Amino acid sequence: MHVIDIGMATTPMVYFATRLMDTGAGIAVTGSHNPPAHNGFKIVLDGASLYGEGITALRDAMRLPIESATATSAWRAR
């Protein structure tokens, strides 16, 4: 897995970077002038926002028990 750090960027820049770099996915860690409960992540998969049922399915999958995995290679930031 490769992690590409595009630095501090607006949400549209994250969408653009996922297309430009052909990553297929991107995650923006958000901060807001609103209360902390409104902060979080914005996820883009194949050029579209992940929301609603997609977020619910991701949350449910993350709650499932997982087996230990053996990494075939280390991740690195590009």
UniProtKB/TrEMBL annotation:
Pfam families (alphabetical): PGM_PMM_I
Provenance organism: Rhizopus delemar
Gene3D superfamilies: Alpha-D-Glucose-1,6-Bisphosphate, subunit A, domain 3 (3.40.120.10)
UniProt keywords, alphabetically: Isomerase, Magnesium, Metal-binding, Phosphoprotein
Protein family according to the UniProt entry: Belongs to the phosphohexose mutase family.
Record keyword DNA damage present: no
Domain of life of the native organism: Eukaryota
GO function terms (MF aspect): intramolecular phosphotransferase activity; magnesium ion binding
InterPro entries to which the protein is assigned, alphabetical: A-D-PHexomutase_a/b/a-I, A-D-PHexomutase_a/b/a-I/II/III, A-D-PHexomutase_CS
GO biological process: carbohydrate metabolic process
Alpha-D-phosphohexomutase alpha/beta/alpha domain segment(s): 2-53
Protein name: Alpha-D-phosphohexomutase alpha/beta/alpha domain-containing protein
Cofactor(s) required for function per UniProt: Mg(2+)
Keyword Isomerase applies: yes
